Amino acid sequence: MAVSWEQTEHFVSTSNRDIQPGRPTAYNPPRPTGHGDTAEEDVTSFHPGQADWSPENMPDILYVYKSPEERDKYFKEAERRPVPKYIGNDVMYEKWPVEGKDPRPLLDFPHLPDQVGTNEWWWVFEAWRRLDPRITWKDIHMRQYGPNRKAHWNTIQKLVSRNRSPAMMVTWPQQRDGLKSSNEKRRVHDYDSLEAAQAPQDDPQEQPEAQSKGKGRAKAQETSKAADPEGKKKRTIKNVDWVTPLMTDAQKEANTTR
Prior knowledge:
By secondary structure, the protein is mainly α. It is 29% helix and 2% strand. Strands 1-2 form a two-stranded antiparallel sheet.
């Protein structure tokens, strides 16, 4: 009988937040920190289940070719919306709120530390989102050290995206077999109060950007059709060696013009 995703080794070993007797109490090797005067403050808080992660010992989930069915099924069938994180009876809020706005509540993800260093290894962000698809770039961004944090969460997304291909790492789709990305749902920290977040809805902050990109692509397609109505022009794939590093020479030649 197949086990549920939260019972798999991938999930269990990397989500444990309890320090066991005889186990490490700090990252080994140490995680990247900030620079200069902020070095001691701009850090990723300790997560026991990820104590030994390093460039020489990356989590196994990064070597999995595609999203496991158990993972998709777990988050698809059960409406496992993230809930606010508590310390005792008190909700935990972000330490460095956006200027002019109230602090947003942190959401409770078993793999995500309470604080994230701005110089953290990019593949750590990728691992977190593979282990729990509910985690968004925004959840990571709001945990970063405020004084050194970039203005927008998409800087983290771009960092990960441009490093995947050189690292020979495939991109997992955020929607498969009806599993919707949590980016498409309204989050608790998009509201002024906890009570306002009762049901998942479209994210009002991210939807206009997606619509804008869709309109841009449609306009580009219309322009392309007008310039070449019969579709006779050949398309050229640039930088084939970088885009598809595993292609043979014959495959590159065959795909360069088509």
